[in-house]
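INFO batch 0412 | record 1 of 1 | parsing
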Amino acid sequence: MTKKISKNIYENNLDIALNKLHSEGRYRTFIEIERDKGNFPSARWLSEKNHEKSVTVWCGNDYLGMGQSDVVLDAMRDALTKAGAGSGGTRNISGTTVYHKKLENELASLHRKEASLLFTSAYVANDAALSTLTRLFPGLIIYSDELNHASMIEGIRRNGGEKRIFRHNDVNHLRQLLTEDDVKAPKLIAFESIYSMDGDFAPINSICDLAEEFGALTYLDEVHAVGMYGSTGGGIAERDNLLPRIDIINGTLAKAFGVMGGYIASSEKLCDALRSYAPGFIFTTSLPPAIAAGAAASVSFLKRNQSLRDQHQLQAKILKTRLKSLGLPLIDHGSHIVPVVVGDPVHTKKLSDMLLSDFGIYVQPINYPTVPRGTERLRFTPSPVHGPKEIDHLIKAMDYLWSHCALNRAELSA
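INFO prediction complete | emitting tokens
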């Protein structure tokens, strides 16, 4: 009789995998925080010893604090009272409500497209759309920026079609790849407007020029830009007057809009095809009505409130100026994202821990594989309500800890 494999082998493999993360300083720690409505960006941290401490959140993606806005909360309460908690099913099985349709109409209008399609997250939207497009366009070749989101990479990988990876923001390399392929093959260029780890912008106009020259579709991920850029919050493509040149836009409701969910905005035909061909849409229960209502209210509100976007950019500029004055290795490409490079995973985690425990500043370490080894960092995301008091406290803490840990003070070039 053949001897069975002991189940201990699974436990041993898990120990090896987890110990590797610890030894490399890449083990992820999730702290328990409770957001304090009306007092954003303050929150309460429940430590391992059950001690409660007030902290300031400096790494959240609720960029504009809309998750605390009465405009959003009132819309959610109203929908919750009228429609209840869950949606009741997938979109084609009782999961389409007036709240979902209103939100899709708001998003289509935001990006000046014929239609939009809701998903449970922007990750799912990217994965579902990009993995389905080869079924809609047989022989499709996808050209993807090497620093694209994991969700885009996964969707492109799963579609089973041809793909080409071009060097980050390298239009010449993209041209070379396009030139080498069959001129008659359908093509799509997938890229982001703002890359969240460095905060740099894509050369959208130049990529659109290439797309038109080679007959390619454009697929733009705007998750770190929607709500925050453009005259109505439509993202970088709106800011640069390029919306008509973008065929498909991916966006999120979980960052600047302060709720959750993701979407695709495009032509009526493409959205219609995706809702009938994309498994990630077909077989997923739709967003709760209250979530959809809150998101629609947030999108509508931000379309009309440029002052909030202006204040957000001002706070980011002030923080970057203050950090540069300390000689810290800051990457500054002019966006709202503020990365300070530490360059070592253990030191990055230590700085994060000390900022939290000693100064009440919550910022998570960003380590490999999110960023390349040797570029580990702390990434700060200021909001319109990170005021002088919060910025002063952060600057003093960073100055002290940088000296305490004997780290280099040398500004990185943008």
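INFO post-check: The longest helix spans residues 306-325.
INFO record closed
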